[in-house]
Design brief:
The longest helix has 19 residues, at about 425-445. The strands form 5 sheets. Strands 8-7-15-16-17-14-18 form a 7-stranded mixed β-sheet, with helices on both faces. By secondary structure, it is of the alpha/beta class. Helix content is about 35%, strand content about 20%. It is globular, with a radius of gyration of 22 Å. It is built from 16 helices and 19 strands.
Length: about 450
Amino acid sequence: MRTAIIGGGISGLATAFLLRQKQPDWTVHVYEREAQPGGTMRSVHQDGFIFERGSNGYLDNKPATGELVRAAGAEHLLLRSNDAARIRYVYTDAIHRLPDGPGAFLKTKLLTLGGKLRVAREFWIKPRQSDEEETLKSFGDRRLGPQFTDVFLNAMSAGIFGSTPEQLSVNAAFPLVVKLEREHGGLFRGMLAKRKKEAGPGGVLMSFVGGVSSFVDHLAGLMGDDLRLSASVTALDLADGRWRLQGISDEAPYDNVVLATPAYVSADLLRSVDAGLAGQLEHINYSPISVVGFGYHKLTHPLNGFGLLTTASAGLDILGVLWDSAIFGDRAPEGSKSVRVMIGGQRNPELALKEPDELVEIARRGVQQTMGITETPDTTFVQPWPRGIPNYRVGHLALVENLFQSADQLPGLFLNCNAYRGIGVNDCVEQSGKCVDRMLERAGAEVS
């Protein structure tokens, strides 16, 4: 059985590794158009600093990525985040520490007394009866009050999705939150029940020595010659139940094709095979976002924490600042410090598309306004992503269900990337395992 995986990011590499584990006799080739694997999950080493182009790691409270790391023999690369990473901040009219317990919540100035009392009422709010998708704003206003939504949920949606509560489907973006309401009648009831059932912390942020590229390169190395870099597949052809890759010469047809590419790339690849499916894929929306990194050899700010997120009401041009060198000790040379600034998203999409020098100026102004940093950085890193993070709008769940049903009508076709059922590293790895299981089920193969 011959399988082609298009896309050498974490979804493609994880799918290839897990498939070869279960079916070592299958031929598995991964095609990546860039000269390096990883996609957005790539580290840049610059002047002694390490800047991530995208994600900086994963939480260990879900098993998928940790199991993949162990199975791939990469445990020696693991890097635990510093304890300071548990301290987080939100900027509204000033910088405030995010409360991490009931006592801190009562003292925080992020909400008025009325806002706190409205949050406390959540325990008595009846659960929603409808199963229809709703926005994160609707969910937050209904259960916790508009003030909580405008501060906490606005900052959270910017930090995770580069989006806004009005733009996100709570069902698609935060399914576990919806599950708490559905199964326990409310968030507080659900969290109390979960705490009794699952005693322990909520997870530690993990990364890899030298940046996330260390693990990506480790997985890529296990592929050997079956990973084809700088290999740009331009389109797919389907004939007699088998797939040919246009743009790639001298390859026999494949029984299976896994599109581990962004939804809009998958649409282009499939257009000549199934225009309807391609059109559905184009309905998945992406948020533009740019990352600006600063490295300082001398910085007076202590950077004691994970970083900060801003709210829309703050009226600033940045979404947040990650204090990278405080999170992971190897991200800056000894005695130096580094941060990454996030710009754009659904809040200010046009800002993410500015020229690099303009992005640097926006970022410098942002760290001064939020953190009081006036020092000139010794090194600067800029990474724009015109279509950076999938934006799960209301209707996303139905759209994805239809997409997968349509894909199932084509022999040996599988969709697998962060555009469908979770954007995080854990989500990508978990969905890669499910993709492999679907492939084996459809092939009628026995798992070895």
